[in-house]
Amino acid sequence: MNVLAIVGSYRKGHAIDTLVDRVLDGVRQNHPDAVVDKIHLADRHIEYCRNCMACKRDDPAKPIAACILHDDMDDILPKLVAADALVVGTPVNIGTVTAVLKTFLERACWTLAKPGHRPIEGCPVPRTAKPRRAVLVVSAGTVPPWLRWFCDDATKLLKSWCDSCLGAQVVGSLYAGAVLTRGVAPYEAKARALGRKL
Predict the structure, then answer these.
(1) How many CB atoms lie within 10 A of CB 4?
(2) pLDDT for 100-154, tens place per residue?
(3) Handedness of CA 155, 28, 22, 186 (dihedral sign)
(4) Rounded to two decimals, what is the model's pTM?
(5) Do the beta carbons of residue 10 and residue 42 sit within 8 Å?
(6) Residues 6+ apart with CB under 8 A from 80
(7) How far is CA 172 from the centre of its chain?
(8) What is the CATH number of the domain that holds 139?
(9) What is the DSSP secondary structure assignment for residue 49, as one 8-state letter?
(10) Are 112 and 64 in contact, with CB atoms under 8 Å apart?
(11) With contact defined as beta carbons under 8 Å apart, do 102 and 154 qualify?
């Protein structure tokens, strides 16, 4: 089983990085032979999408569409295609994913998807039919879990991306709220449980 973890946090060793590690601990408990790769997007060189639509117009039979940009996405995209399971983690910044993760999602959209027919003509659908599963981990510094749905557009965006671009079934998500006062310890057991579920 190939597991790819995408970390959209700017800081290593803090809430998201730690909770993604706990998810991966849970994965290893159930699948000690799992091949795990963890990518910190902030360490990678990923250019902004140019909206040229070369990828969207590329041959829909290709598993990865051509992109006019050549940077670290050239290395990441094949890993996404090969992954059986994904862990995506991000702090909630201004109600949604971090800028580095949003840049990654935009670049991965049409390189991994092709124009489809649902819910309307032209919306992205996965280029490959490979079944995948995903777990999402988001954190907020001040907003507690009971206020999650008033400020967390990140989870909704990530679920949509997993479905439309990778055909990945999201089997669970974790919202770690108010981590500045609570820390991550109250959320670590749930993170491990999500890894076992994955």
Answers:
(1) 22
(2) 999 999 999 999 999 998 778 889 999 999 999 999 999 999 999 899 888 899 9
(3) positive
(4) 0.95
(5) yes
(6) 4, 86, 108, 112, 166
(7) 12
(8) 3.40.50.360
(9) P
(10) yes
(11) no
Look up residue 184 and give its DSSP letter: S
Q: How confident is the model at residue 156 (pLDDT cuts 50, 70, 90)?
A: very high
DSSP label of 32: T
- What is the count of structural domains for the chain? 1
Q: Minimal CA–CA distance to 144: which of 168, 169, 176? A: 176
How is residue 6 written in tokens? 């995408």
CA–CA separation, 16 vs 130, rounded Å?
A: 27
List the structure tokens of 32.
């000690």
Cis peptide before 32 (omega within 30 of 0): no
Please compute the mean of the pLDDT values over residues 156-181 and round it to a whole number. Answer: 96
Residues of the domain holding 44: 2-197
d(Cα 194, Cα 25) in Å, to the nearest integer?
Answer: 10
Per-residue tokens: 153: 């557009």
Structure-token pair, residue 176: 């770690």
Q: What is the mean pLDDT of the chain?
A: 96
> Residue 114 pairs with which residues in a beta bridge?
125
